[in-house]
Every structure is written in structure tokens, then in C-alpha cells.
Amino acid sequence: MLHFFINTGINDNAYYWNELTKCLRVYCDLKKVCPTLDSLNIGGGFPIKQSLAFDYDYAYMVREILMQIKRVCSDNDIPEPNIFTEFGSFTVGESGGAIFRVLHQKQQNDREKWNMIDSSFMTNLPDTWAINKRFIMLPINRWNEDYERVLLGGLTCDSDDYYNSEQHANAIYLPRFDRNEPLYIGFFNTGAYQETVGGFGGLKHCLIPEPRHVLIQRDGEGKIHTEIFSEEQTADDFLKILGY
């Protein structure tokens, strides 16, 4: 098997098609000196929805990739390979989401309002901190109220514990903060990597507790069922892990 992966993802642009063609030429050259080579792994990189404006023609990209492979192999009189993929995010990304409550609001200066969530981006959505990854973010309640532009911060002591909206195309607008009306926000399509990177259970940075995990499933009749997989960590849980 020859493995090919491009870290910018599978996109319909000149760079991706050029790199794929290079890989296919390498495959054909290797096949001529190693006849047992019969498989090509094109890696991962299928994107998933990170905003409501997301638009990606998966069927078109699959057809074009297969046609490229078929064309190059035909030009070199090489049998077409078995094709393998590693579409991790594409497979499991939509399986997860995270819901936070806005605890309070801080006025940083004349222009910046910070909504502080009841958890941490660094521990629960580590890709937002590590690679400035964007997720679909929406308010869960109070949709019909007035909105304001805000920044989002987490509870740890780190100044990097925030959702970096400046790296994204759109500013964050949420219903106006009201001490008497709880505001909940949701981040969606978080099912890939966040928990494997941040870990499940154990001790988190600044002793931020592991949140409650709820399983949501739809049965054969279309009815939604929920089940508590694990409760939020407590102080006793932390002490037990530490040996007290």
C-alpha cells in the first residue's frame, strides 16, 4: 500500500489536484518495480460542516478523485489500485456537541464584552485553542431577543482560554446577557478528536470538571431517547483520583 495524505484537506483547488497527480505518478512508478503493490490510501481530509453557510459537493469530489486515478493508471498501463480512505472527522464529526451556560459578562474596555462560559474551551474543545478550529455555534434559547456582539472566554487561568472569533469569518452575536435569564450556547459537530485530545475523566487543567455526558439516539420509529452516560465530575471525584 502507498499512503498519501495532504494536511490542507481534500479541496477542489489546483493545489490538491496537483499533489494527487504527483502521488499517482509515484504509485505507477512503484508498481513497475514492485508488482505486489495493489493499494492506494488517499488519507483523510473530507471536511465537515463548520458553519451554516458550509457548501461542499462530496459526490463531485469522489467522482473526480476516481477519474483522476483511473486516467493516470490508464496512461501508464497500470491496473487501478484498491482505494482506502481515513475520513475520521467526516465519519464521526456530526456525532457530538457541547452545551455551555453563560455565567456572567465582563466589560473589557469600551468595545469588548466577554461572555464567560461555565467550563473551558481548552479542556472540552481543545482544537479551538490549539488550531483555532471553528465549530457551528448557536444560542440554545432566547432566540427572539435582542442580540449583541460578544467574545467568549473559558474559566481557566489561561489568557488563551477563549474562542478565537478573530480567526473566523464572522463575529459572534448572542442574545443580550441578562443575570435573571440564563443563556445557553451550543457547539455542534464536535464529535471528532475533542475528547480523544482532551481526555475523558481524570484531571483537567485548573481542575475544570468533566461535564455531564448525555447520549441522544433515535429509534426505528423516529422517537428521540436520551440516556445519562456519565454525570459531571465532583470535588470528591477529584480527591479520589489524587489519592485522598
Structure description:
It catalyses: L-arginine + H(+) = agmatine + CO2. Its cofactor is Mg(2+); pyridoxal 5'-phosphate. GO terms for molecular function: arginine decarboxylase activity. By secondary structure, the protein is α/β, with parallel strands linked by helices. The protein has 2 domains: 91 residues, TIM Barrel (Alpha-Beta Barrel); 148 residues, Beta Barrel (Lyase, Ornithine Decarboxylase, Chain A, domain 1), CATH 2.40.37. It is 26% helix and 24% strand. It is built from 7 helices and 12 strands. Strands 4, 5, 6, 7, 8, 9 and 10 form a 7-stranded mixed β-sheet that branches. It has a 3-stranded parallel β-sheet with strand order 1-2-3, with no helix packed on it. Strands 11-12 form a two-stranded antiparallel sheet. Helix 2 links the parallel strand 2 and strand 3. The mean pLDDT is 92.
At CATH level 3, the topology of the largest domain is Lyase, Ornithine Decarboxylase, Chain A, domain 1
Beta-strand proportion: 15-25%
Tell me about the biggest sheet? Answer: 7 strands, mixed
CATH architecture annotation name of the largest domain: Beta Barrel
Name of the CATH homologous superfamily of the largest domain: Lyase, Ornithine Decarboxylase, Chain A, domain 1
Task: Categorize the overall geometry.
Answer: elongated
What's the average pLDDT?
92
EC number: 4.1.1.19
Domain Orn/DAP/Arg decarboxylase 2 N-terminal: 2-92
Pathway: Amine and polyamine biosynthesis; agmatine biosynthesis; agmatine from L-arginine: step 1/1
InterPro entries: Ala_racemase/Decarboxylase_C, Arg_decrbxlase, De-COase2_N, PLP-binding_barrel
